[in-house]
Amino acid sequence: MIKPLSFEKKVKFFVYIHFTEFFNAGDDAKLLELAAPSCAKLFVHGRAGDDDRLKTSIDEGGGPANAVVLFPSDTAMTVNNYLKYRRCSFKQHDHIQDFDVDAEGVGVEIEKPLQIIVIDSTWRRARKMQHHLKSVIGEVKHVKLETDIISVYARTQSQSGRICSVEAVALMLLEFGESKDICEELIEYVKINNKALTHSFHQKDTSKWKWDPRAYEKGETLMGHPAWYFATRANGLRKPTW
Question: I need a surface site. Which of 78, 116, 151, 171 has the fewest CB within 10 A?
Fold first, then answer.
Protein backbone atom coordinates (compact mmCIF):
# COMPACT_ATOMS: atom_id res chain seq x y z
CA MET A 1 0.00 0.00 0.00
CA ILE A 2 1.27 3.45 -0.92
CA LYS A 3 0.93 5.85 2.00
CA PRO A 4 1.49 9.63 1.94
CA LEU A 5 4.98 10.66 3.00
CA SER A 6 5.92 13.54 5.31
CA PHE A 7 8.66 15.49 3.56
CA GLU A 8 11.08 17.47 5.69
CA LYS A 9 11.90 19.93 2.91
CA LYS A 10 9.39 22.48 1.67
CA VAL A 11 8.67 21.33 -1.87
CA LYS A 12 5.85 21.07 -4.36
CA PHE A 13 5.74 18.64 -7.27
CA PHE A 14 4.23 19.55 -10.63
CA VAL A 15 4.18 16.51 -12.91
CA TYR A 16 3.91 17.55 -16.57
CA ILE A 17 2.95 14.27 -18.20
CA HIS A 18 2.35 13.36 -21.83
CA PHE A 19 -1.18 12.08 -22.38
CA THR A 20 0.09 8.71 -23.64
CA GLU A 21 1.87 8.17 -20.31
CA PHE A 22 -1.16 9.25 -18.30
CA PHE A 23 -3.04 6.17 -19.52
CA ASN A 24 -0.02 3.86 -19.25
CA ALA A 25 0.00 1.48 -16.28
CA GLY A 26 3.77 1.25 -16.38
CA ASP A 27 4.26 4.98 -15.88
CA ASP A 28 5.65 5.79 -12.44
CA ALA A 29 5.31 9.59 -12.14
CA LYS A 30 1.64 9.28 -11.19
CA LEU A 31 2.84 7.69 -7.95
CA LEU A 32 3.87 11.15 -6.75
CA GLU A 33 0.19 12.07 -6.38
CA LEU A 34 -0.19 9.14 -3.97
CA ALA A 35 3.08 9.71 -2.13
CA ALA A 36 2.55 13.46 -1.78
CA PRO A 37 -1.18 14.20 -2.18
CA SER A 38 -0.98 17.56 -0.42
CA CYS A 39 1.94 18.92 -2.46
CA ALA A 40 1.75 17.21 -5.85
CA LYS A 41 -0.30 18.19 -8.89
CA LEU A 42 -0.53 16.49 -12.26
CA PHE A 43 -0.88 18.36 -15.55
CA VAL A 44 -1.41 16.57 -18.86
CA HIS A 45 0.44 17.84 -21.91
CA GLY A 46 -2.15 17.99 -24.68
CA ARG A 47 -5.23 18.36 -22.50
CA ALA A 48 -7.13 21.62 -22.91
CA GLY A 49 -6.64 24.01 -20.00
CA ASP A 50 -3.78 22.18 -18.29
CA ASP A 51 -1.07 24.54 -19.56
CA ASP A 52 -3.00 27.49 -18.13
CA ARG A 53 -3.52 25.67 -14.83
CA LEU A 54 0.19 24.91 -14.62
CA LYS A 55 1.16 28.53 -15.28
CA THR A 56 -1.30 29.74 -12.64
CA SER A 57 0.09 27.30 -10.08
CA ILE A 58 3.68 28.34 -10.81
CA ASP A 59 2.83 32.04 -10.57
CA GLU A 60 1.00 31.54 -7.27
CA GLY A 61 4.05 29.77 -5.84
CA GLY A 62 6.52 32.52 -6.61
CA GLY A 63 6.83 32.33 -10.39
CA PRO A 64 9.65 30.90 -12.52
CA ALA A 65 12.28 32.22 -10.08
CA ASN A 66 10.98 29.75 -7.49
CA ALA A 67 10.69 26.78 -9.85
CA VAL A 68 13.06 24.26 -11.32
CA VAL A 69 12.64 21.74 -14.14
CA LEU A 70 14.14 18.32 -13.52
CA PHE A 71 15.49 17.72 -17.02
CA PRO A 72 19.07 17.17 -18.31
CA SER A 73 19.10 19.86 -21.00
CA ASP A 74 22.31 21.36 -22.37
CA THR A 75 22.01 24.28 -19.95
CA ALA A 76 21.02 22.22 -16.90
CA MET A 77 22.82 22.84 -13.61
CA THR A 78 23.86 20.27 -11.03
CA VAL A 79 21.70 20.23 -7.91
CA ASN A 80 24.55 21.63 -5.83
CA ASN A 81 25.06 24.59 -8.19
CA TYR A 82 21.32 25.20 -8.33
CA LEU A 83 21.09 25.35 -4.54
CA LYS A 84 23.83 28.00 -4.51
CA TYR A 85 21.89 29.96 -7.13
CA ARG A 86 18.69 29.61 -5.12
CA ARG A 87 20.28 30.97 -1.95
CA CYS A 88 21.32 34.07 -3.87
CA SER A 89 17.86 34.38 -5.44
CA PHE A 90 16.21 34.22 -2.03
CA LYS A 91 18.01 37.39 -1.02
CA GLN A 92 17.19 39.18 -4.28
CA HIS A 93 13.60 38.19 -5.08
CA ASP A 94 10.81 39.16 -2.68
CA HIS A 95 8.29 37.07 -4.60
CA ILE A 96 9.89 33.77 -3.49
CA GLN A 97 9.59 34.73 0.16
CA ASP A 98 6.71 34.35 2.57
CA PHE A 99 6.36 35.97 5.95
CA ASP A 100 5.56 34.21 9.21
CA VAL A 101 5.59 34.98 12.92
CA ASP A 102 7.95 33.20 15.28
CA ALA A 103 7.23 32.09 18.85
CA GLU A 104 7.98 35.57 20.16
CA GLY A 105 5.63 37.26 17.72
CA VAL A 106 8.39 38.65 15.54
CA GLY A 107 7.88 38.66 11.78
CA VAL A 108 10.38 36.48 9.91
CA GLU A 109 11.07 35.79 6.25
CA ILE A 110 10.76 32.20 5.07
CA GLU A 111 11.26 30.57 1.70
CA LYS A 112 8.25 29.46 -0.28
CA PRO A 113 8.24 25.75 -1.16
CA LEU A 114 10.49 25.00 -4.11
CA GLN A 115 8.37 24.07 -7.12
CA ILE A 116 9.83 21.00 -8.83
CA ILE A 117 8.54 20.42 -12.36
CA VAL A 118 8.89 16.84 -13.55
CA ILE A 119 8.56 16.22 -17.28
CA ASP A 120 7.25 12.71 -17.71
CA SER A 121 7.39 11.04 -21.12
CA THR A 122 9.70 9.18 -23.44
CA TRP A 123 13.02 10.92 -24.04
CA ARG A 124 12.10 12.04 -27.57
CA ARG A 125 8.77 13.52 -26.47
CA ALA A 126 10.21 15.00 -23.29
CA ARG A 127 12.69 17.10 -25.27
CA LYS A 128 9.82 18.62 -27.27
CA MET A 129 7.75 19.11 -24.11
CA GLN A 130 10.50 21.05 -22.33
CA HIS A 131 10.69 23.49 -25.27
CA HIS A 132 6.91 23.90 -25.16
CA LEU A 133 7.02 24.36 -21.38
CA LYS A 134 9.24 27.41 -21.78
CA SER A 135 6.56 29.09 -23.91
CA VAL A 136 3.97 28.35 -21.21
CA ILE A 137 5.67 29.38 -17.95
CA GLY A 138 8.70 31.35 -19.09
CA GLU A 139 12.40 30.86 -18.37
CA VAL A 140 12.98 28.31 -15.62
CA LYS A 141 16.28 26.82 -14.49
CA HIS A 142 16.92 23.16 -15.32
CA VAL A 143 18.73 20.71 -13.07
CA LYS A 144 20.36 17.42 -13.92
CA LEU A 145 21.52 14.45 -11.90
CA GLU A 146 24.93 12.87 -12.02
CA THR A 147 24.35 9.22 -11.24
CA ASP A 148 25.42 5.79 -12.39
CA ILE A 149 22.87 3.76 -10.44
CA ILE A 150 20.87 1.04 -12.16
CA SER A 151 17.14 1.62 -12.10
CA VAL A 152 14.69 -0.64 -10.27
CA TYR A 153 12.00 0.47 -12.72
CA ALA A 154 10.29 -2.38 -14.59
CA ARG A 155 10.11 -0.50 -17.90
CA THR A 156 13.74 0.68 -17.93
CA GLN A 157 16.61 -1.15 -19.54
CA SER A 158 19.22 -2.28 -17.03
CA GLN A 159 21.81 0.33 -17.99
CA SER A 160 23.45 2.61 -15.47
CA GLY A 161 22.24 6.20 -15.41
CA ARG A 162 18.83 5.45 -16.90
CA ILE A 163 16.30 6.02 -14.15
CA CYS A 164 12.58 6.68 -13.93
CA SER A 165 10.89 9.92 -12.87
CA VAL A 166 10.28 8.97 -9.24
CA GLU A 167 13.85 7.74 -8.83
CA ALA A 168 15.10 11.04 -10.28
CA VAL A 169 12.93 12.99 -7.83
CA ALA A 170 14.21 10.88 -4.93
CA LEU A 171 17.84 11.47 -5.88
CA MET A 172 17.27 15.20 -6.34
CA LEU A 173 15.56 15.45 -2.96
CA LEU A 174 18.42 13.57 -1.33
CA GLU A 175 20.90 16.14 -2.69
CA PHE A 176 18.50 18.86 -1.58
CA GLY A 177 18.83 17.59 1.99
CA GLU A 178 15.70 15.47 2.31
CA SER A 179 15.64 12.53 4.71
CA LYS A 180 17.31 9.43 3.30
CA ASP A 181 14.44 7.31 4.65
CA ILE A 182 11.88 9.37 2.71
CA CYS A 183 13.89 9.11 -0.51
CA GLU A 184 14.28 5.36 -0.12
CA GLU A 185 10.56 5.03 0.55
CA LEU A 186 9.82 6.81 -2.73
CA ILE A 187 11.91 4.25 -4.59
CA GLU A 188 10.12 1.45 -2.72
CA TYR A 189 6.87 2.75 -4.23
CA VAL A 190 8.33 2.12 -7.69
CA LYS A 191 8.98 -1.47 -6.65
CA ILE A 192 5.36 -1.80 -5.48
CA ASN A 193 4.18 -0.63 -8.90
CA ASN A 194 6.56 -3.14 -10.50
CA LYS A 195 4.92 -5.95 -8.55
CA ALA A 196 1.47 -4.83 -9.70
CA LEU A 197 2.64 -4.87 -13.31
CA THR A 198 4.30 -8.26 -13.00
CA HIS A 199 1.19 -9.76 -11.45
CA SER A 200 -0.96 -8.48 -14.31
CA PHE A 201 1.38 -9.51 -17.09
CA HIS A 202 1.54 -13.07 -15.82
CA GLN A 203 -2.21 -13.53 -16.02
CA LYS A 204 -3.08 -16.10 -18.64
CA ASP A 205 -6.27 -14.30 -19.67
CA THR A 206 -4.88 -11.08 -21.14
CA SER A 207 -8.37 -10.01 -22.20
CA LYS A 208 -8.86 -8.77 -18.64
CA TRP A 209 -6.55 -5.84 -19.19
CA LYS A 210 -6.95 -5.08 -22.89
CA TRP A 211 -9.07 -2.17 -24.05
CA ASP A 212 -12.49 -3.42 -25.14
CA PRO A 213 -14.99 -0.70 -26.18
CA ARG A 214 -17.82 -3.27 -26.33
CA ALA A 215 -17.30 -4.16 -22.67
CA TYR A 216 -17.25 -0.47 -21.75
CA GLU A 217 -20.57 0.15 -23.51
CA LYS A 218 -22.08 -2.72 -21.51
CA GLY A 219 -20.96 -1.02 -18.30
CA GLU A 220 -18.37 -3.66 -17.51
CA THR A 221 -15.21 -2.49 -15.72
CA LEU A 222 -11.95 -4.04 -16.84
CA MET A 223 -9.82 -3.94 -13.70
CA GLY A 224 -7.29 -6.65 -14.51
CA HIS A 225 -4.84 -4.02 -15.70
CA PRO A 226 -2.98 -2.31 -12.83
CA ALA A 227 -3.73 1.08 -14.39
CA TRP A 228 -7.43 0.79 -13.65
CA TYR A 229 -7.06 2.88 -10.50
CA PHE A 230 -5.66 5.73 -12.59
CA ALA A 231 -7.76 5.25 -15.70
CA THR A 232 -11.08 5.21 -13.87
CA ARG A 233 -10.25 8.67 -12.50
CA ALA A 234 -10.10 9.96 -16.06
CA ASN A 235 -13.66 9.24 -17.18
CA GLY A 236 -13.81 5.48 -16.89
CA LEU A 237 -11.56 3.55 -19.21
CA ARG A 238 -12.11 5.80 -22.18
CA LYS A 239 -9.17 6.63 -24.38
CA PRO A 240 -8.07 10.29 -24.25
CA THR A 241 -10.28 12.64 -26.26
CA TRP A 242 -8.17 15.81 -26.02
Answer: 78
